[in-house]
Amino acid sequence: MNFIKRGLLSVVRKKGKSIILFAVIFVLGNLIAGAISIQQATKSVENTIKTKLGSVATVEFDYESADKTGEFDFSNMTFLSVDQIKKIGEQPAVKYYDYSTTAYSSSKTVKRYEVEDAAIMGGMNQFQVKGIHYAPVLDFAEGKGKIVDGRIFNQEEIDKDQNVAIISDKLAEKNNLHVGDTMVFQTEVYAAEFSENGQLEVTDTRDFVLEIVGIFEQTAAKKEDNKDNKKEKDVQKMFMDTEYLNTIYTSAGVVNAENDFSSEAFLKANPELSEKDVPNDPMYTPIYVLKSPEDIETFKTDIKDLMPKNYIVKTTADEYDSIAAPIKSMSKLSSYVLIVSVIAAVLIIGLVVLLFLRDRKHELGIYLSLGERKGKVLGQVMLEVLIVSIVGITLSVFSGNYLARGVSDTLLQSQTEETSTNEQMFSSMGSYALQTDVTTEDVAEAYQVKLDSNYVLLFYGIGLGAIFLSTAIPLIYIVRLNPKKIMM
Amino acid sequence: MAILETKNVNYYYQDGDQRRYILKDTSVSFEKGKFYTILGQSGSGKTTFLSLISALDQPKEGEILYNNENIKQIGYEKYRRNDIGIIFQSYNLVPYLTAVENVLVPMSITDNSLPTDVKTVAYNLLDYIGLGKSKADRLVTMLSGGEQQRVAIARALATNVEIILADEPTGNLDEEMEQEIVTIFKKLAHEHDKCVIVVTHSNEIAQQSDQTFYLSKGSLVPHE
């Protein structure tokens, strides 16, 4: 009849007390299990969504912080130099990078692709000509599009500023263009002021020719086509998709040459302006694709000293904060519930154990008077509590998880509806590579309360830890017991 | 030869600067094979004396020797575990255990070597004390007062100790049951060579013991 057997018999034969202790542990266990389930689920959503968002970063001028006082002289603004872009690109966290420059050109022979009857650009036949340095084209490398005909650029074409182009399949289809065909675009220089009839007159123009070497298909749009999105989101998305499908990829040198021409012609037409008023330096938007989302913070720290003043790093992960608001608030709520329920568990179970111990003072005195070591008496009590706790906690693993599913579904539904109305679907970071089509609905879809080993282990750890703590405190009572006072 | 001996044992309560002595310079020795009783009025210190020789409390001064070794050196807990068996007035049995399980408790606590089949030993002890197997397997709360005290005696004997100490063991029992318990004590002393020390109010029990001590004003003196 050692202390282990005594403990087992005590649990089995003193059913009333065991049931009370079980009920207390089960109720509190459900709270803890529910809170842990929600936390685990939100954590997994964070990882999933951040991975989905990718690990793309850009470095850009922070207008907001530079012009806090409203007195910033933008003519003295420092631009990111090619050297600085390259140095940042050499960081170990960077997988590959590109820095592109853009010109808007029109064409007399190539017509814009428009979605159905939407005249979003107000009838202007303009194209975004994107001059790139990364020959495999970063947007394609990141899965935003894929070559369906022809090829991507080779590095020699990019380095030698050749007039090569990759266009979308939609644009090609609309204009009956094929690989090997040439397209003529115009760089138009506009007057500095509106004319009397309210128009900006074209003061100069020149043509440039691009040869199609490849045709791409937009890949990200396909997924969204099947989605039942809200109307305003559809319009916004349609605009972005149309812009992307009308983008002409070419070498950066071609775009720089057209921008140079544009600046010079503008200055010529407006002799009262100086070169300072019309900066001629190419303004590059660098895009850095990092090795993994975990590298984002390291990258941010590493390049702090490499950036000019007032420049900041923006990443796709920044989007997580805005689209995952419902998840974040639920994670916060579950953290509070977890803390409160652990404290409550320690206090309540501690009190229950203490009351039971006082009730068993006589029995404990008997063991001590028979010469039982105090450690074994403590062991017996601990064992009894643990047996009941393990049963209570094991049942709570399932019921708490089930409960968490119900609670989080309700919470998520109400909060998703609230957030969706204010949601910004696209990033404001300027490049398609940094735009994300991950929405709050995607976050809600990714949210799943799972019954996995991590959750079970964490719950057992926290649950049993709280029970150990709550039992250890009342055990001081046993250490202080004086068998003479109890027995005689 | 004395198996248990007290030498100049003092026990007192400190009341400010004053010491209120319960036991003063108490020196007495007990031998194996004898049945001792300790008489005294209520509050005379009988229970205190028993608590000292059972190591449930410690003397303020003096020493208690078991086989010529100070029980302090043996270790109070170890001495209780291996060298004595205690019987209380209110039985003090574990309520959720059966009679035989109660007897098995000290057998799992002691360091003394016991036969391998302790359960059979426990049943035999209960049988010897007068409790058959059917009662041995009952929860102790289902037994009468006399039966519970028999379980307590069997428990005290379970670890094969040489000294049995009892505090008013028949205080809650009727006369017939009292006599049965005393007979057991006499048998334990005379037939099994145990040293049985019983604290009691009862002159009837005292008359049946081999030697009686009377405790008065802190002194324990042989009673004629």
UniProtKB/TrEMBL annotation, chain A:
<protein>
    <submittedName>
        <fullName>Putative ABC transport system permease protein</fullName>
    </submittedName>
</protein>
<dbReference type="GO" id="GO:0022857">
    <property type="term" value="F:transmembrane transporter activity"/>
</dbReference>
<dbReference type="InterPro" id="IPR025857">
    <property type="entry name" value="MacB_PCD"/>
</dbReference>
<dbReference type="InterPro" id="IPR003838">
    <property type="entry name" value="ABC3_permease_C"/>
</dbReference>
<feature type="domain" description="MacB-like periplasmic core">
    <location>
        <begin position="21"/>
        <end position="241"/>
    </location>
</feature>
<keyword id="KW-0472">Membrane</keyword>
<dbReference type="InterPro" id="IPR050250">
    <property type="entry name" value="Macrolide_Exporter_MacB"/>
</dbReference>
<keyword id="KW-1003">Cell membrane</keyword>
<dbReference type="Pfam" id="PF02687">
    <property type="entry name" value="FtsX"/>
</dbReference>
<feature type="domain" description="ABC3 transporter permease C-terminal">
    <location>
        <begin position="337"/>
        <end position="483"/>
    </location>
</feature>
<keyword id="KW-0812">Transmembrane</keyword>
<feature type="transmembrane region" description="Helical">
    <location>
        <begin position="20"/>
        <end position="38"/>
    </location>
</feature>
<keyword id="KW-1133">Transmembrane helix</keyword>
<feature type="transmembrane region" description="Helical">
    <location>
        <begin position="377"/>
        <end position="398"/>
    </location>
</feature>
<feature type="transmembrane region" description="Helical">
    <location>
        <begin position="336"/>
        <end position="357"/>
    </location>
</feature>
<feature type="transmembrane region" description="Helical">
    <location>
        <begin position="457"/>
        <end position="479"/>
    </location>
</feature>
<dbReference type="GO" id="GO:0005886">
    <property type="term" value="C:plasma membrane"/>
</dbReference>
<dbReference type="Pfam" id="PF12704">
    <property type="entry name" value="MacB_PCD"/>
</dbReference>
Automatic annotation (TrEMBL), chain B:
<feature type="domain" description="ABC transporter">
    <location>
        <begin position="4"/>
        <end position="224"/>
    </location>
</feature>
<dbReference type="GO" id="GO:0005524">
    <property type="term" value="F:ATP binding"/>
</dbReference>
<dbReference type="GO" id="GO:0016887">
    <property type="term" value="F:ATP hydrolysis activity"/>
</dbReference>
<dbReference type="InterPro" id="IPR017911">
    <property type="entry name" value="MacB-like_ATP-bd"/>
</dbReference>
<comment type="similarity">
    <text>Belongs to the ABC transporter superfamily.</text>
</comment>
<comment type="function">
    <text>Part of the ABC transporter FtsEX involved in cellular division. Has ATPase activity. Essential for cell division and viability.</text>
</comment>
<keyword id="KW-0813">Transport</keyword>
<dbReference type="InterPro" id="IPR003439">
    <property type="entry name" value="ABC_transporter-like_ATP-bd"/>
</dbReference>
<dbReference type="InterPro" id="IPR003593">
    <property type="entry name" value="AAA+_ATPase"/>
</dbReference>
<dbReference type="InterPro" id="IPR027417">
    <property type="entry name" value="P-loop_NTPase"/>
</dbReference>
<keyword id="KW-0547">Nucleotide-binding</keyword>
<dbReference type="InterPro" id="IPR017871">
    <property type="entry name" value="ABC_transporter-like_CS"/>
</dbReference>
<dbReference type="GO" id="GO:0005886">
    <property type="term" value="C:plasma membrane"/>
</dbReference>
<dbReference type="Pfam" id="PF00005">
    <property type="entry name" value="ABC_tran"/>
</dbReference>
<keyword id="KW-0067">ATP-binding</keyword>
<protein>
    <submittedName>
        <fullName>Putative ABC transport system ATP-binding protein</fullName>
    </submittedName>
</protein>
